[in-house]
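Priority: medium. Attachment 1 of 2:
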């Protein structure tokens, strides 16, 4: 009897694994691309204003973007802050790690260390960023994780999306597969994006055929990994694909002609020109 029960358990687990791997379908997120997600401002407009700050986000909007990517992490007292780096030394005049500090302790930190014209400029909270950015702008919220089990930010971001009922205008992205799993576990209504590269992800996930283990709704590969096979794979999985960070116009036009749905770049103006050139090229054919 015990062997039979064990056998049935193994069969059941096997069915779950096969179902998870082979019979999963991503959410339909085509509405995002119709509303501007095809041109995503990487950390706002970071070549013209301090990245991941309100001036940078506003600059991207002034340049005609309707979708902004922002990085977030959590302070010691549970506040979700917009910042790409856990440490303060890279982009600010401060020192130390954001997750070791309270938000009050970050109040005096100037995020415009590389952009004196914008000084002083503080690290914004995600919640005040939502207040500052118009309702019709799509937000791609990239959760940064400091370790393999750092899932705290995912919980706070999901709670904020629920509180504000902004499912229609957000994507939650991460390099970290467990973060994406955590977001989906907490609320399956939230579209997720898997940021994919060939060096900072688990070895098993470095092959395209294993990406659906993560169950993202948007596939975001590093631009040097994009090729015809990868785009064809994503299309076969009905998985939207938007490469990062595409910072020259020929690469933008090449990837769009290859069949990607969107591009992520530091240069809003180049994205506009690339999209228009590709559109005109196909209209003239």
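Attachment 2 of 2:
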């Amino acid at each position: 009897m015990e062997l039979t029960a064990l056998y049935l358990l193994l069969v059941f687990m096997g069915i779950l694994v096969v179902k998870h791997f082979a019979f999963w379908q991503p959410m339909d997120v085509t509405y995002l691309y119709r509303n501007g997600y095809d041109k995503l401002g990487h950390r706002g407009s970071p070549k013209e204003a301090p990245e991941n700050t309100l001036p940078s986000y506003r600059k991207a909007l002034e340049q005609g973007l309707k979708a902004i990517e922002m990085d977030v992490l959590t302070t010691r007292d549970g506040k979700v802050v917009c910042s790409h780096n856990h440490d303060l030394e890279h982009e600010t005049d401060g020192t130390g790690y954001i997750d070791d500090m309270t938000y009050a302790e970050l109040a005096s930190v100037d995020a415009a260390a590389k952009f004196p014209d914008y000084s002083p400029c503080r690290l914004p909270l995600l919640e005040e960023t939502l207040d500052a950015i118009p309702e019709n702008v799509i937000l791609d919220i990239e959760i940064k994780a400091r370790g393999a089990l750092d899932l705290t930010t995912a919980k706070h971001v999901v709670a904020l999306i629920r509180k504000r009922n902004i499912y229609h205008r957000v994507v939650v992205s991460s390099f970290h597969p467990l973060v994406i799993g955590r977001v989906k576990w907490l609320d399956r209504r939230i579209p997720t994006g898997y940021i994919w590269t060939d060096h900072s992800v688990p070895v098993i996930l470095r092959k395209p055929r294993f990406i659906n283990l993560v169950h993202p709704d948007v596939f975001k590969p590093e631009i040097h990994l994009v090729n015809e096979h990868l785009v064809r794979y994503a299309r076969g999985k009905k998985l939207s694909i938007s490469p990062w960070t595409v910072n020259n116009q020929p690469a933008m036009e090449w990837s769009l002609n290859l069949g990607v749905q969107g591009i992520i770049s530091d240069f809003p103006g180049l994205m506009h020109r690339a999209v228009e050139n590709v559109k005109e090229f196909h209209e003239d054919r």
